Amino acid sequence: MPLEESLASKLTGTRTTCPYCGVGCGVIANPSDDGQAADIQGDPEHPSNFGKLCSKGSALGETLTLEERLLEPELEGSKTDWNSALDRVAGKFLQTIAEHGPDSVAFYVSGQLLTEDYYVANKLMKGFIGSSNIDTNSRLCMASSVAGHKRAFGTDTVPGCYEDLELADLVVLIGSNFAWCHPVLHQRLLAAKIERGTKIVVVDPRDTATTDAADLHLKIKVGGDVALFNALFAYLANSNAYNDTFVTDHTNGLGSALEVASSFSMDEVVEATGLTIENIETFFEWYEETSRTLSIYSQGVNQSSSGTNKVNAIINCHLITGRIGRPGMGPFSITGQPNAMGGREVGGLANQLAVHMDFEPESLDRVKRFWKAPNLTRGPGLKAVDMFDAVHEGKIKALWIMATNPAVSMPNAAKVRDAIEKCPFVVVSDIVENSDTLTLADVKLPATGWGEKSGTVTNSERRISRQRSFLKPPGNTKHDWEIICEVAQRMGFNGFSFQNPSEIFREYAQMSTFENNQSRDFDIGKFSEVSSSEYDQIKPFQWPKTGNAEQDTSAKRFFANGQFFTIDKRANFVPTPVRSAINLIDTEFDLVLNTGRIRDQWHTMTRTGKTQRLSTHIGEPYVEINPKDALRLNLKDADVAVVSSKWGKAYLRAIVTDRVSQGNVFSPIHWTRRYASRACIDEVTSPAHDPTSGQPELKYTPVNIRKMELEWWAYIGTMKEIEPSQLSGAVYWAISRRGDGWAVELAGDTSTGDLSHYLKSLTSKFPDSEIISFENSVSKEFRYSEFNSNQLQAAVFASFNGPVEADRTWIGQNIGKTLSQEERLRVLAGRPPSGQVSGKIVCSCMGVGSGEILRSIQAGANTVAKVGEQTCAGTNCGSCKPEIAAMIKVQSEVSTKMNLEAAE
Ligand SMILES: Nc1nc2c(c(=O)[nH]1)N[C@H]1C(S)=C(S)[C@@H](COP(=O)(O)OP(=O)(O)OC[C@H]3O[C@@H](n4cnc5c(=O)[nH]c(N)nc54)[C@H](O)[C@@H]3O)O[C@H]1N2
Ligand SMILES: Nc1nc2c(c(=O)[nH]1)N[C@H]1C(S)=C(S)[C@@H](COP(=O)(O)OP(=O)(O)OC[C@H]3O[C@@H](n4cnc5c(=O)[nH]c(N)nc54)[C@H](O)[C@@H]3O)O[C@H]1N2
Ligand code: SF4
Ligand SMILES: [Mo]
């Protein structure tokens, strides 16, 4: 297609925003005729992504099928109509409040709601029910950043913008796996690095795709950040970077903060961080000499019992150098969810009141008048961990969960499940029919999902973008805001008769500017009178947008003028004492469990788990463990490991690798009971949390690990749909979509009985399918393949002697294919012809495995671009480029070593 034509075709369709991460990429969607798929392109005009998308964004079209969708309301397990469901919810909430008071009910909501949904939920709970028991999964995500911002700036303000990535000379990524979690921004950073030579420092306890691209990787001990940044702060105080004018004119509290920060000797810093003196010095020197320094941070900072102190320790370094609010510099908290920022703006956390106002008497008075609230709450409510504890203790008796899956994502998840199960009345609004949380609900409410709903979201740089619908609501689904408003009206409250999201947004904008007069940072008064059609046309914009051009000159960045939102307009240095994790390792639980994300899955996999494209990169839950620890524990690569803590356990595939340090293990967060036998890592994690922000310590849980003793191991590729309940014959299993069917890893003990019989019960779809098989009594293995008219139905590999070996990627690609006699035998052998080994999928967009990439590197492709030319890997979204680059690096190190050895 000629360039102009292809650009033009990209520009037609519905302009909307990606529903996954906080980058907030613009998307152009064109639905298929049946409305169960869509063509998805990056929006070239959206200022967050300029047309780029990552692997998850690119695969959005494949997540729109109605498979596994919740399409009808359900009451106590039976389908019902909306009237009955909504009456029951309103009635039960009213009854509970009448009998036990407003604090006996709670909402647990989500950074994946739209701003309009969030606004009405918050208004209902705080203004009309009269409690502040509304908290959100953003507590697990952004609470420490919010608290840190408020302590330093007086408000929850993100000072910078994405353009700073292109304008910085030094980017420090702290506790952020940018390459996998914010891939489009990472691509922007790497492009800038090529353009202007930006230096990248990554502070992370493990090797990641992000550290692979760093000039300096500070492989810090989990929790060592406060010690590191305190030392940097003290160093800067005596350096050329000290900005006396800024400190004198615009800040308070340097002395006491510096005193605390200086309390550690360099030896103590080395001990607390596990870093070398040389690396620490290099970092400090780079920081000192680079005025355009940007500090990007995420969950390695926030999810800690010292999370708020970590945030302030980082901000202190920017305040002492005056590096804030100007191009290419500043502290930059990168948000996780698509609308975690919107939720913070609305005030949907239990310790906020509404729209950047808290519980001071004047705010309470103002909000009461604005909402005409009959029963305004008076003070903060329960934060997530405390809220579920209160549910467990029976203090909260009616709970409404929206757009989040706490039975999987809350720490100490088994207790959370127990609490939800015990709670007398639980309502869950979701888009899928069966999440681990939904199975515990009394009332299930079917919400519209991405593509069907309409509203606004705010990304990490304070940019508000429209999510627009391009599909009809399927079945009997309703929009979240509609459901909330209908319940509010049935409870007898005025103020919820909105007809569409634009009316909610208008009220929200009015509230943001109500008696504001520049006293609050969040002001979008320009939209106070926005009409429905103008709302539909809103282009992505950054707040503030007061309607007064002069006031909005700071829209891109805050604080360049040194005016903060504290009483005397000065920023605060905050003393940040070093504290250890709350639950420390001991002789029984001697390893530190760190948790996080993988590139192609989103949280609890309710959407990304539906696409085979996103399930091929990593299809099984795992735990990474250092070779020295593995040796001590007699654990080998590919063994099944039992990871246990005081709170619970998980069964995970062991990956033995020095990408994690000795004493540390890492596991991803995504697997649920839908996709694995027992891999929910939050059944293991500790509920300890930061005393200021309430954010749980999800990156540090003391655990121990042992090898699971097993009798048999198997791998199945099959076209037949397999239900989790059928897999109870295995002690360990993990299932993922592959090709036209499913891939299942299993392992078990003697309780399974006849293994061959059991496996056939899982795979055999057609009674007369043709089976070819192979058995080796010496190696104690057997395999069989099933065909229906030469179409491969299932390929099964089993062993009584350890994990099975088979090229899983290649087998997955053959499931459902019609095969020749020779190919049939190769499938039975589990291997492609030599020289064609697929290896693990690296590029999920183009389906390219590590085998093919390695062969092209070995044949001379020495850049990511050349590998792309030869294999197509990395040529679509580019999310896999860091992994290809890492493979090139390893291969070049290998050949240098071989050359040296040959020369000797
Ligand atoms: N692919 C994908 N992308 C996502 C998501 C997803 O589910 N999948 N979720 C989105 C959401 S909601 C969020 S919140 C973001 C999260 O984005 P990130 O915060 O980048 O992701 P995580 O993997 O949780 O953790 C980041 C890193 O912190 C490191 N870390 C652990 N402990 C410490 C420590 O004590 N100090 C330091 N310096 N580092 C530490 C971990 O090793 C890990 O590499 O991702 C968003 N993007
Ligand atoms: N150990 C550990 N645990 C963690 C983390 C970690 O790093 N380590 N990270 C934490 C963080 S940062 C986060 S953000 C959380 C995320 O954890 P969750 O929020 O629990 O995870 P999701 O899978 O995103 O849940 C979203 C739910 O909303 C549903 N949904 C999707 N769209 C809609 C909609 O439009 N309306 C409604 N009503 N429902 C919808 C989905 O089907 C899904 O069930 O996990 C936290 N838990
Ligand atoms: S980086 Fe990926 S997941 Fe995040 S908003 Fe953009 S396309 Fe969506
Ligand atoms: Mo998050």
Automatic annotation (TrEMBL):
Domain 4Fe-4S Mo/W bis-MGD-type intervals: 11-68
Classification via Pfam families: Fer2_BFD (PF04324), Molybdop_Fe4S4 (PF04879), Molybdopterin (PF00384), Molydop_binding (PF01568)
PROSITE patterns per the UniProt record, alphabetical: 4FE4S_MOW_BIS_MGD, MOLYBDOPTERIN_PROK_1
Cofactor(s) demanded: [4Fe-4S] cluster; Mo-bis(molybdopterin guanine dinucleotide)
Ubl conjugation keyword on record: no
InterPro entries on file: Asp_de-COase-like_dom_sf (IPR009010), BFD-like_2Fe2S-bd_dom (IPR007419), BFD-like_2Fe2S-bd_dom_sf (IPR041854), CT_Nitrate-R-NapA-like (IPR041957), MoPterin_dinucl-bd_dom (IPR006657), Mopterin_OxRdtase (IPR006656), Mopterin_OxRdtase_4Fe-4S_dom (IPR006963), MopterinOxRdtase_cofactor_BS (IPR027467)
Family: Belongs to the prokaryotic molybdopterin-containing oxidoreductase family. NasA/NapA/NarB subfamily.
Protein name, entry field: Molybdopterin-dependent oxidoreductase
Organism in which the protein naturally occurs: Hirschia litorea
Lineage: Bacteria, Pseudomonadati, Pseudomonadota, Alphaproteobacteria, Hyphomonadales
